[in-house]
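=== RUN LOG ===
request id: a7f3
mode: sequence -> structure
chains: 1
length: 209
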Amino acid sequence: MEMSEGIPVLFFFPLLEEPDSGVITIGEVTLDTSKYTKKEEYQLRQQTAMVFQNYNLFRNKTALENVTESLVANKKMSKKEAETYGLALLNRVGLSAQAKQYPVTLSGGQQQRVSIARALAVEPHALLFDEPTSALDPELVGEVLQVIRELAKQETTMVIVTHEMQFAKEVANRVVFMEDGKILHEGTPEEVLSSTTNARMNQFLKSIN
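=== RESULT ===
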């Protein structure tokens, strides 16, 4: 399975579970899932950044500090350089005014946007989203989806697990429907999310509509 940089996609990332077979290519790193070392796994993971459904922010650090932590620790930026870049990323997700606030003072939608800015900080070849709106109140979902829409417009490669079907239809160029670890249907959003000959897919679409 190959992911071309700069194309928004929608499917499940195999290394979140132990894979049975296949080849994964992200950026310039390729991993044969039938036989790989911890070093190869680490190299592949360095090509990605994860956005969790429950934010996973450091509660004792401000929004800006959450974004700059990896820049200082891993990219060896100076604190000043990291703060300048971190503020630019927070501005990108509409949160520059909240830079000095702690997570406890932010709404769920704002926390998730900080999480997205933090993921962008490491400049990954692919952003991985695990149900990014499932922990949010309905009125906060839109602000997070809008940030992801903007990333898609900028041709950011994204791997998103979601139940937001209308959103998937808008931003994805490829959709994979999975159940119990098996791919049941895949194709363009129109092919997968419209009427289909796949009975299980039809059942799912009816249940969410």
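=== NOTES ===
Confidence is low (pLDDT under 50) at residues 1-14.
The chain has one domain: 2-173.
=== END ===
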